[in-house]
Amino acid sequence: MNILNNGRVNMVITNRVIRYAFHKNTSPNSIVTYGDVELPVGTMQNGTIADAQAFQRVIRQLVQENRWRRKKIAFCLVDDTVVIRDLSIPGTLSKDEAIGYIRTQIGHSFYLPFDNPALAIDVLRNDEETTDVRLYAYPKEKIDQFKHVFSAAGLHPIIADLTALSVYRYYVQTAETASDHTLLIHWNHDALFLTAFQHHKAVFNRHIKIAMDDEPAQETAEGMIDHYMTEINRMVDFYQYSITKGESRIEQLIVSGDFPYLSTAKRHLADRLELPIYEFPDENMSPTYVDLMGLGLKNGG
């Protein structure tokens, strides 16, 4: 067992709410307390802190109420601006050297839609000549925003993760046999995040904003779900015909998020796509917290 030093705060941040838990260690059953708090309107916009004072007040209150001062914290970011790209680099580089080399190539051999990225890589294949890697890039200033607020509130930020990776981590932890070709549909109140996983590594993602009233009528929700079914079906086809060149297809759907009509969306998915939908085990807590459970499994710091 990987014991965390005096436990760890885990926090998932969306544009509307903060979900939080305090874990004694990285066991899924080690949660001491958990909950969520709704952010004041306008606090977060497009995954960025728009009202720093309002965000700071929420974090400071959570720290004070739960006695988290001087605790470590891992947090999930909004996945709206993550870039996933496969690259080939010289085969003799260490992992740190590889990231340094990739930085020198930004703006030359490939481009990113933002400056000053935080980078991480997965090695896919390597030999003496070349190494194939999967690059994950995210705007560093967004991460630094959160780290600054957490540090000012007396917390010690040690891990910044992506929500899709956290949900998938919990899927792998709980599934008897994890599929090699999976589509994660993370459906939140204000956004739909689609991430395809191939052999347990994220290979492609898409972010779709959702304009929705706080309490949409069932009929309105049904129409909205049908609209997004088309986008999800396109993602399934893209994976089969563009990512795998017709050699493989999505075999498993993972559905998570805080969309109020998630069960209805799952029913539509089952009818339209005719693919199995993974059912997370009953942990005596809302399925909304699946992302938080997966974040709690991540080691580091």
**What fraction of the residues are assigned to beta strands by DSSP?**
25-35%
Separation, N- and C-terminal Cα atoms: 15 Å
Given the C-alpha coordinates, what overall shape results? Answer: globular
Based on secondary structure, the structural category is: alpha+beta
Largest sheet properties: 5 strands, mixed
The whole-number mean of residue pLDDT values reads 90
Low-confidence regions: none
Order of helices and strands: EEEEEHEEHEEHEHEEEHEHH
Give the strand order of the largest sheet, numbering strands 1, 2, ... along the chain: 3-2-1-6-10
Residues in helix, %: 25-40%
* Overall strand count: 14
- Count of helical regions: 7
Radius of gyration: 19 Å
